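User: Is it possible to get a 3D structure for a protein together with its bound compound? The compound here is glycinamide ribonucleotide. I've pasted both below.
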Amino acid sequence: TDRLVVLISGRGSNLQAIQDACARGQIPGRIVGVISNRPEAAGLEIARRAGLTTQVVDHRLFSSREDFEIALSEAIAKWSSDWIVLAGFMRAFTPGFVDRHRGRLVNIHPSLLPAFTGLHTHRRALQAGVCWHGATVHFVTAELDGGPIIAQAAVPVAPEDDEATLAGKVLAAEHRLYPQALAWLCRGQLVLDGESLRWREFPPMRERCLL
Ligand code: GAR
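Assistant: Yes, that's possible. Here is the predicted structure of the complex:
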C-alpha cells in the first residue's frame, strides 16, 4: 500500500478524515508521518491520538523559504512517501520545491477552482454572490492553486449562509472529497503528465464531481 505524508498547519479535520479513510480501507494507503509548520497546530494532537508519527518544521526558525523547504524535504524524505498530501497547509512553496516533488504533491483548496484562489475563499464567494461554492483537490504546480484538477465537490450557497455556515458545508464536503481523490491516486488511476492529468481509469462522474 502507498505511503502518505500529510502536511498541516492547523485544525487537522482533513487529516482526521484521511486517517479514518485509511483505517476503513477506502484509501489503499497509510499515513507514515504528519508534519506541521506550526507547533501549536491542533491537528498534531489528532495525529498523536491516532498513533501517527509527527514532526514540527517551524517556518519561523528559518531565515529563508529555501532553508525551510530544505528542512521540510529532509523530514519528508526520511519517510520515503509516495504522496505528499497538503491538508490545510498554509505556506506557499517555491518552484524549486514543487519541481522536486512534482506529481506526488496534492492539495485541497476550499473553492471551486479556478475561482477564488488564495485566502478567505468563503467570504469572497459570498461577496461575489455565487450560487455554487465548494472544494477542489488538485496537483500542486508552481502556480498557486493552479495545478490540474483531480476532483471537485460543489455545495449550494443558501441566502442565509454566512462565512461560518458556508465554511462548515464546504468542510463537510472536503472530508468526503479528499479520501475519494487519494483513493484514486493510491490505486494508480491517474498520474500527472506534464501540465495535465492522465487517467488510466476514469472514475464515475458522480465520484469525480461530488454534490
Ligand atoms: C480546509 O478548509 C482546507 O481546504 C483549507 O484549510 C482548511 C483546513 O482545515 N486549505 C487552504 O485554505 C489551503 N490554501 P483542516 O485543518 O481542518 O483540515
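The longest strand covers residues 29-36. Strands lie at 2-8, 29-36, 54-56, 83-86, 105-109, 132-139, 149-156, 190-193, 196-199, 209-210.
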